[in-house]
Each structure stands twice: as C-alpha cells, then as structure tokens.
Amino acid sequence: MTGLRIPGAAALGIALLLALPLAAVGDYFQHLLVLWLLFALMALSLNIIVGYLGELSFGHAAFFGLGAYASAMLTVHAGLPFWFGLLASAVVAGFFGLVIGYVSLRIKGPQFAILTLGFGAILHSVFINWIDFTNGPLGITKIPPPRIPLLGFEIRDGVPFYYLVLFFLLLSAYLCRALMRSRTGRAFIAVRENDVLATSLGIDVFRTKLLGFVVATMMVGVAGCLYAHYIKVITPGLFTLHYMAPMIIMVIVGGKGTVTGPIVGALVYVVLLEVLRASGSMRMLVFSVLLTLSVIFLPGGLVSLLPKWRGQGGREKAND
Amino acid sequence: MFWDIFLQQVANGLVNGMGYVLIAVGLTLVFGVLRIVNFAHGEFYMLGAFVTFFAIKLLGVPYLAAVLLATIAVAGMGVLANQVLFKPLRREHEFTILMVSLGLSLLLANGGEIVFGADPKYIPSPFADEAVELGPVFLTWQRIIVLVAAAILIGLVYLFIRFTTMGKMMQATAQNRDGAALSGVNIDWVHTYTFALACGLAAVSGALLGPTAVIFPTIGEWAVLKAFIVVVMGGLGSMGGAVAGGLLLGIAEALGANYISIAFKDAIGYGIVVAVLLWRPAGLFVARK
C-alpha cells in the first residue's frame, strides 16, 4: 500500500463531478448541485464517527452550527475575510470536538449517543438564548460571499460555489481514504469491531476515537462555514435534530464506512427532497421508510449494490 | 414567601418527575429485557395521547375510559412493532436495532402528523381545570391524578416483575437470554409481554400527562428525550434508577427554571445528565463494572 494512487473508478467519479455543472442548466439545478455537495460533506464527516468508529453521535449538527456561526460572526461582525472565517470554523468546531469528545468518548453505545445529544442541546440553548452574542433565534443575516484574495473575485452562488465546495469535498474524501489506508485507520476499524481486542493489541482506544472525532468535527465545521456563506442566513436551528436526522439518513442509506456511500446518500436525499417537495409532510415519512428499509435489507447501503464500487472500497469492506 | 414558591416548585417538579418516571420505566424495561434502545418509545407516548383524544372526540367515551382504551390499543401497537420489526432482527448488531428504532420513531412521528394533523390539540379532561389547595401549594386534580396513578402503576409493575411467573421470566431473560431459553422460558412470549407492558405504560403517561398541556404529533421526541435522560442517569435497565432519575430531573428542572432561567430549563436537564455520566458512566444505580 505505497502511495495513494487514484483508482480508475474514483478518477471517473471525480471527472464526472468536475464536468457536472456543464450539464446543469439554470440556477435551480446549480443550486441543487451545491446543496448536494454541502450535504455530502456533512455526511462524509458524520461517516467518520458512524462508519469508522462505529459510534452514533447525535451532537454532530451542533458542530455544523458552531462552524457556521464562527465564520459568520467573524466575517459579519468583525469584518474579517472569508478565508479567516473558514480557518476559524475548523478550529472552533475542532476545539469543541476535542473538549466534548474528551469527555464523551469514555462512554460508548447508547450512553454516548445521549451524551452527545445533551452537549448539542446545551450548545443550542446557549446560541438561542445568548442574544447579545449570537442575536438569538433571529440568527445572523447578510453573510458575505467568499472572496478570493488579491483577485477580488467573489464566489457567488451557482457554478463557482459548486467548485469551491467540490474542492473541500474531494479534499475530505481524499483525507478519509488516506486515513483509512493508514495504520490509524486500521486502528479505527479494530476499535469498531472489538474494542477490548483492540486494547489487547496495544491500540489506545480512547486516543484513536478522539482523533477520529476531532477530524470529523473539524470537517463538519468547514461544511457549516461553506453553508453559511452560501445560504447567507443562519439560525440556531442548525444545531438541532432537523439537521441531524438527514445526516444520519444520508450516511445509512448511502452506505456507512465507505467514502462514496455518504456522497451517494446525499444525492439520494437532495433528489428525493425535490421530487417529493409537492407532497409536503409526506417527505419525512418517505425518508424514514427508506432509512428503516435500508437498515434491514441493505445494511451496506446503496453503494453495496454496485459490486464494482465494492471492489474499490475492498479494504474497508473486507473488515465488515 | 420564599418557602411558598420553593414548595410550589418542588411540587410541580414532583408531578413532572413522576410523569418522566412513568415514560422512562417502559424504556428501561425494554432495554433491560430485550437489549433494545428504543428511540420509538416516545412515539407510543404520543399515540397514547392521540388515541385518548380521538376516543373522546369520535366515540364520545368518558375521559377515564378513553385512557384505558388508549392503553390497550397502544400496547397492541407495541406488540405489532415488536413482531414486525424487532423480532426478525433479534440477532442483529445493536447498532442496526438502534437505527431501526430511530426509523420507526421518524415514521410514527411523521405519519402521526399526516393522520392527526400538525395543529396542537387539547385533550378535554374533567380534572384539568379544578385546582386543589394543599397548604401553600396549588395543584390541579389532573396533576394529582398523574402523581397518584404513576405511583400506583410503578408499584404494580414492580410487584408484577418481582412476584409473578411472567415477571420472573422477564428477570431471567434480562440476566441471560440464552440461559433463560435453555431453562424453558419462552423468549418470544417474554418479549411480547415486555413490549406490551412498556408501550402500555408509555400510552398511559401520554393519556394522563396530555391534558396538562397541548398535544401535537412531535411530542414523542420530547418524551423520548426526557425518558432517555432519566434512564441514562439512573442506569439503563434499572427500575429504581428510573424512579430516582425521573424525580431528580423533574425537581431540578422546576427549581432551575425558577431560580436560574426558564430559557435554560432543558439545558439544565442535559447538564445534569452530562455531570452524572462523567461521574458514573453506567448511571447512578448500576454497579460499576
């Protein structure tokens, strides 16, 4: 396993992603493409916790919100440039990830899920009630679009924004792949499958989990920042289960423990969201049926249907 | 004056806490006996409240009869959910079962929104408007019923588990499923009974607590979160822990809302559970492993 050559299927996928905006005519489809990639980035980060570490974090949306608020507040209130906000969102989300992970990861299973839910709810309460600092439920508006330094070129919506998010998505996907091919990644899988055995092999379970948790929270912090600068309005709603449930659905339906799974899951989510828009409240019903069915009948998610892709993710799959 | 307010808050906290206990006992039973972390538990609470509402509105039965009807109906729904979803998955990984229960929870909550409508509803109870004065403390009859009924029901569940044959079989299954099966315990029956009991209890709590506020199809989320805090605090699978955890949460929330800030009421509950889990990861009433 020397180097990280990009295999054929992945190269094809990347080429498709790069070419996709050419086929997307009109603002509406371009908007959907950007949304897809933003959701994919969120799902990819949750996948590190759910798919690789094998724990369920209900607090992941809170780190998404922290990233969004960190960047929005620095750019809107302090007038700092976008790139600084981006960096800050990763640092802030990662810092909270470190603190909360340090505390929560001593516990596993359902208690861990509830503990992370608790921390998420506390952060939500703080952001909704500390009105002087966060503007409370009204949130932050008029978030400026990202601006490229020197050139003064603003990345507004549509195709340019798509490529901006794509850059971070590919970077994160590469990071996930590299991580899982490394010694640390193999330790993740060992911890997921049997933490007692992993300990006996000399793996520091707590440190391994904490590392994965912090990487995941930094990633979702970046996703939050990009989301804030794309949608331009954020509220404390970002911290809640309304963003958490879709993330879980995307990871599980797409296929947990793989890099392509969450990206495919996000695509399914965005497409269904639009197809079912007219049916209103039926939408979440469809998603919950989808989640339940895929857990029961397709534990590997949609990507496990395509043997070709399974071959690509062979190393990860082999451990399942 | 200080003591009047303090006592009133403690009384309110006790009533809320008993409500939490009633919801949480079913959750902890299902975990203890079936090893299922049932995220859909709150949805059975919601169904209990709505079946009561519609029994009164459509069938015109009196409130207490509607409560009984809701309990039986929802217990049946719980058995159905167990047969269709959880029984076939018994040997699967706990993560799969957790996800299925999350799916069921979303399914019932969103299905409820379509069937019942998203607008808040009010269960008409003859006991909701009349208040009783106990020294400095005011309580409505409805809240007193919650307190008394919860105490009686939890006592009965305790006696059932402790002294009946089925209760003993439940204990045996909780201790060691395979061992119990080898000794001739019919595991399928034990699971069915446990689900019926747990969902029935959730439905009673929905039917009794429903008239103390308005009901809407997403209250299940609230109910299951409170129940989880209680159960995780007391120790998953421990009944005594659920009672202590529920009362602690109810009183802490009431006092916190009064003396700290009402906006942070929910955060106070989570703060307590975070503190408890850090101190004793397995919960207050479970022996350290």
Strand order, main sheet of chain B: write it out: 1-2
Shape of chain B: globular
Low-confidence stretches of chain B: none
Biggest β-sheet description of chain A:
2 strands, antiparallel
Largest interface: A-B, 36 and 43 residues
Describe the global form of chain A: globular
Largest sheet of chain B: 2 strands, antiparallel
Total DSSP helices of chain A: 15
- Work out the helicity level of chain B: over 70%
Termini separation of chain B comes to: 47 Å
Fold topology:
The complex is a heterodimer of chains A (320) and B (289).
Chain A lengths: L7 H16 L2 H27 L7 H17 L5 H23 L5 H20 L1 H4 L12 E2 L4 E2 L4 H23 L1 H11 L1 H6 L4 H27 L9 H14 L5 H16 L6 H16 L9 H6 L1 H5 L2
Antiparallel strand pairs in A: 1-2
Helix pairs in contact in A: 1-7, 2-7, 2-10, 2-11, 2-12, 3-4, 3-5, 3-10, 4-10, 7-8, 7-10, 8-10, 11-12, 11-13
Chain B lengths: L1 H33 L6 H19 L3 H24 L7 H23 L14 E4 L2 E4 H23 L1 H11 L1 H6 L4 H23 L9 H16 L4 H21 L5 H15 L10
Antiparallel strand pairs in B: 1-2
Structure description:
The complex is a heterodimer of chains A (320) and B (289). Chain A is mainly alpha-helical. Helix content of chain A is 72%, strand content 1%. Chain A has a domain at 26-239. In chain A, strand 1 and strand 2 form a beta hairpin. The model of chain A is unreliable at 313-320 (pLDDT under 50). Chain B is mainly alpha-helical and 289 residues long. Helices cover 74% and strands 3% of the residues of chain B. Chain B is built from 11 helices and 2 strands. Chain B has helices spanning 2-34, 41-59, 63-86, 94-116, 141-163, 165-175, 177-182, 187-209, 219-234, 239-259, 265-279; strands at 131-134, 137-140. In chain B, strands 1-2 form a two-stranded antiparallel ribbon. In chain B, a hairpin with a 2-residue loop joins strand 1 and strand 2 (137-140). Chain B is globular, with a radius of gyration of 19 Å. The model of chain B has no long low-confidence stretch (mean pLDDT 88). The chains are: A mainly alpha (320), B mainly alpha (289). At the A-B interface, helix 5, helix 11 and helix 13 of A face helix 4, helix 9 and helix 11 of B.
